[in-house]
Each structure stands twice: as structure tokens, then as C-alpha cells.
Amino acid sequence: MRGGDYSRLQGVSGATRAAGIAAVARTGEGRRRPAAARVAGGLVAAGGLAAAYMVFEAQWVKRRQVDLPVPGLPEMWSGLTVLHLADVHAGAFLTNERSLRKVVRWAEPLAPDLVFLTGDILGDPAKSGACLDLLAQIRPSLGMFAVTGNHEHGLSKAPLARPVGTSGLWSAAGITLLSDSCVALPPRHGTQVIVCGADYLTGGYGLLADGSPAGAVAKTAGDSPPSAGRAGVAFPILLIHDPPPADAELASIFPLAFAGHTHGGQLRVPAPSGLTPLNRQHNKFLDGVHRWGAGLLVVTRGVGTSFLPFRLFTRPEATLWRLVYTSPEHSDQRMNAPEEENAHGRIPG
Fold first, then answer.
1. Per the confidence metrics, is the pTM higher than 0.85?
2. CB within 8 A of 89, min separation 6: which ones?
3. Secondary structure class of 323 (helix, strand, coil)
4. How far apart are CA 302 and CA 117, in angstroms?
């Protein structure tokens, strides 16, 4: 064999080896690409399923009837029923309206005595009509009362948030808006329940301006302060959006308060300490019934959502409370959380 022929064979052999190596590399890369695509596809599918579930849970409203033992409630008012709703966020998402529709369909035949709306009910006036039309179907015998939340005042983390002019909408729907004011319900055998509402911007400061707890309630109700002989006859109830701390001055005036605002955390994830909100606010009262000063604070998770139409491990809720007289000496009894209700859905008294 000539030297030139040998060199050419060596060259062909080297080229063949290089081509083989390149082919193997391309084969390995081709195998990796489908694997990466499968992983990416799986992640997208899992994300889609998670989002679909959270949208579903945002409309999976927990509707319940629960007895609430209230220390000091006048016996004549024992059995008073209160439908407590908050955070509808009308017009924000279609899911909110669907949730409210489920609530109204359930609550209307129950004929509650009162409806308490503790803030963030309305949004854009042009989009709030459907919400108000739904609420108007309930027709409580003693009235429907509301307070403002931060969203009614345009106070939100949303970049396009702005104040909304809702003052005329409430009255047109038969709802009494309480802004640091009170309404006395018709008396029963000399005893009276007074419903007071704290404006979100003042935090209820107007209810404290009189300096005397009894006088503040009576003054805003358009009455004279109760005399010594009338002590304990008037039972005040507070509606407020943001749950006040247990040492708030309002807790010294009101033996019973209803609040919202927290959404129960809206999105909660499992943690060693239990279900933990992704965005835990400073307020420790996320939901349920809590000791509040010498009285009780009831916090609802609300009906709707804000920012995103998602909930995770925090179902929306609507509760029809039946207030039950309990003597003050029994006020230290244990109050169960909503998850600890008995088989009848009632807090043991």
C-alpha cells in the first residue's frame, strides 16, 4: 500500500469516528429534550390543576347555622338570629357574585332577624348593582346594617384602587349604613339591643368621643345616657371591618362585636404549626369566635376574594348565628372554633 493511500484511510477513519461521536451526542440530547419537555408539561398541568381547584374553593361556600352563647344578652333577646356576611367585593370577580348568589339562595328561606354586613361589600358602583339586588332578597325582619371597609374607601394594595361613591347605593337597597352611629332596635319588655357601626376611616373613634361607654352608645343612638336604674337594659353590638385587638377601648363598651377583613387568610398552606396564611397580617383574629376584652369578637372569612379569585384551605363562609342568653358568670366557658362544632353545627353552651 502506498503511503498516500494509508494517510487517506486514516483520515476517513478519523472522520467516521467523529461523525459517530456527534451522532451519539445528538441522540443523547434528543433524549434529554423530551424528558425536559415532559417535566415542563407536568409542571404546567399541575399549576393549572391547582389554579382550577383554588377557583373552585373560592365558590365552595360553607353555609351553617350555629348557636352563639352570649354572656349578658338580655333573656328576652335570646334566640335572635343574625346573618353575618363580609368581604363580598362586588364586581371584582364573577366568582364573588356566584358565591353570594349561593348564600342568598340558602339564607332567604331561613328568614333571619338581622343581617350584618361588616365591610368590603361594594366595589365599583357600576358593578355593584347585582350584589345589592341579591342582598335585597333576604328581607330580615329587624333590618340589614352595614359598615364600610377599606375597599369602599379605595384603600387597597391594588394599583388602580380608588374611593367609590356608594353612600346612595346602601339606602336604595334598604341597607342602613352605620358610620360611627347606632340604631336602637324595637324594645322587648323593657330591654333593648343597640346596633352600632364603626366607620373604617375612624376605626370607631366617634363611638368613643363621649368619654363614657354607656353615654357613647346612648348618644349615637339618639337617647339619653342610661340611668343607674337602667344599667344593663341596653345591650350594644358593634359592627366593624378590621378586627380590633382585645385591649382596644371599644372592647370596654361592646360585649359583642362582628368583623371581617381577614378573608381567613384566603390562601393557607400546610406548615409544622398548622395551616399558615401566605400573607399573615398583624391581626391574630383570622376567623372564628374569640375572647375580646370581657366580651366576644366574631370574625368571618367572608364571601368573596380580592386580588385573585383564589382560596386555598380557607373556604368562604356565611353564618346564621342564633344568639343565646348566657349568664355572665358562665362567660368563662370554652368557645369552640368553627371546626370544633358538634354534630348539630352548634357551639356547646
1. no
2. 96, 120, 121, 123, 151, 304, 305, 306
3. strand
4. 10
Distances (CA, A) of 338 to 63, 279, 289: 11, 21, 8
Per-residue pLDDT band for 167 (boundaries 50, 70, 90) equals confident
How many residues does this entry show for the chain?
349
CA dihedral over 235, 254, 165, 287, signed as positive or negative: negative
What CA–CA distance (Å, rounded) separates 152 from 175?
15
Phi, psi of 83 (to 5 degrees): -90, 120
What would the grid cell of residue 40 be?
415542563
Cell of 115: 343581617
Quickly count: other Cβ atoms within 10 Å of residue 78's Cβ: 14
**Position with higher pLDDT, 124 vs 289:** 289
Residue 236: closest CA among 259, 211, 253, 260: 253
Cβ atoms of 71 and 326 closer than 8 Å: yes
Report the interhelical angle of 3-58 vs 94-107 (nearest 10°). Answer: 30
DSSP annotation of 295: E
149: its cell numbers: 371597609
Q: Contact, 215 vs 209, CB < 8 A?
A: no
